[in-house]
Amino acid sequence: MKRFLSISAVIITVTSAASCHEKKEAPKPGKFVLSDTMAKMIAIDTVTTCNVDDALTLSGQVSFNENNVIKVFPRSSGQVTESKVTLGDKVKKGQVLAVIRSADVAGNYADLSGADADIAIAKREMENQQSLYQNGIASEKDYNEARQNYQKALSAKEKIQSSISINSGTRSSASGVYQLVAPIDGYVVEKKVNAGDFIRSDMGDNLFTISDLKNVWIWANVFEADIARVHEGDNVEVTTLAFPNKVYTGKIDQVSQVLDPENKAMKVRISLSNAGLTLKPQMFAKVTVATRQSQQALCIPFSSLIADNGKNYIISYYANDSLKVNPVNLLQVSGSKAFISGDIKPGDKLITKNQLLIYTALNSEF
User: Fold this and answer.
1) Are the C-beta atoms of residues 236 and 272 closer than 8 Å to each other?
2) 151 Cβ partners below 8 Å, 6+ apart?
3) pLDDT confidence tier of residue 331, bands split at 50, 70 and 90
4) Per-residue pLDDT tens over the stretch 178-187
5) Are 156 and 121 in contact (CB under 8 A)?
6) Backbone dihedral region of 107: left (phi > 0), alpha (psi from -120 to 50 degrees) or beta?
7) CA distance 363 to 180
8) How far apart are CA 3 and CA 9, in angstroms?
9) Average pLDDT of the segment spanning 234-254
10) What are the beta bridge partners of residue 89?
């Protein structure tokens, strides 16, 4: 009887162990599961349906926003004795840009000294005539004439002082030296003068241009064959050689009505925010213009595509333990978007970051 109970206990123990083993069955060897660490390294997007873009690529150049700049002109002719800034320098309001020695300014100060002498003479004459008039020796006419001459002398001095203020600013001296200062905070985006240069009164050109560069213009060239495809308001994407992975989005806000006589191209303008100051004047830019068509197709971020042996794939995401490599046909690329066809539908999720690592891991299962 005891032996029977002992055998029964062994059977129950083995059965229980087997049952527990069935409940805790290990995953199939080789099955890829996205770990918590890797899940933080990926990005997931959704397949959508978009109007197919007829993309047009234009060459362009970054320029400063001419509506948001200050041009600094010389106040008088003369010779530049010092140039305090260089192209691209950051300047503060009131900072000295250049020092100029001017014969015109020196002449104004000489005229000012002569005006002071004239005022002193006219004042003495007026006071003398006033005394004679009060004593009955001079006529009222003579006194009034002397007083008018004194007022004329004061007006002449005021005129000369105004000329000095306009032509040389507040920072000038009797030797004819005056300073050009920055009227605003910003960056020197144009500089047309150096120490030793002479400035003529008939030049009429600015010496410096200052901009805060918080907003810039992109000027792009549209050749004659493509003019009909470009319109004001078209969406564009802009990239530069300096930052090829950074895409700036905007719209065409101005279309020229004449062609450039040098390259026979029409100019279009895009205004872009430049908060990070990454766009700098004279940079070359690639402008992609998206012209909308009525045809629709599945679209995904171009960065999510995986190219392998001449074919294109995406990683479809269903769950951390349910990922699939899906082959797709690439129909067209427009800026940061790729138009595709394949065994996917709108709303499907796909991995758009570090997908190549997962692609390699999934392929290693086979």
Assistant:
1) no
2) none
3) confident
4) 888 898 899 9
5) no
6) alpha
7) 68
8) 10
9) 91
10) none
| CA nearest neighbour of 53 among 243, 302, 283, 352 | 302
Cα–Cα distance, 247 to 238 (Å, whole number): 6
Q: What DSSP element (H or E) covers 153?
A: helix 140-168
The size of the chain, in residues, is 366
In angstroms, the CA 81 to CA 83 distance is 7
Q: 186: which strand partners?
A: 91
Mean pLDDT of 320-324: 89
203: left (phi over 0), alpha (psi -120 to 50) or beta: alpha
Range from 27-31, 199-203, 204-208 that averages highest in pLDDT: 204-208
User: Rounded to whole angstroms, how far apart are CA atoms 179 and 97?
Assistant: 7
- Whether 27 shows a pLDDT value over 60: the answer reads no
What tokens were used for 330? 């690439």
- For 199, what's the count of Cα atoms within 13 Å in the CB-facing half-sphere? 25
Whether residue 169 has pLDDT greater than 60: no
Classified as helix, coil or strand, 23 is helix
Q: Which of 146, 289, 104, 160 lies closest to 138 in space, CA to CA?
A: 146
Q: Would you state the structure tokens that stand for residue 264, as one six-digit string?
A: 């026979």
Ranges of beta strands (E only) in 177-283 are: 177-181, 186-191, 198-199, 208-211, 215-223, 235-240, 248-259, 265-273
Two structure tokens written together for 306: 């995986």
**Which DSSP string corresponds to 93-125?**
TT-EEEEEE-HHHHHHHHHHHHHHHHHHHHHHH
> Which pLDDT value is given to residue 135?
81
Check if the beta carbon of residue 13 is closer than 8 Å to that of residue 19: no
With a CB cutoff of 8 Å and minimum separation 6, the contacts of 198 are 77, 78, 79, 80
Question: Residue 145, class by beta-carbon neighbours within 10 Å (0-12 exposed, 13-18 middle, 19+ buried)?
Answer: middle
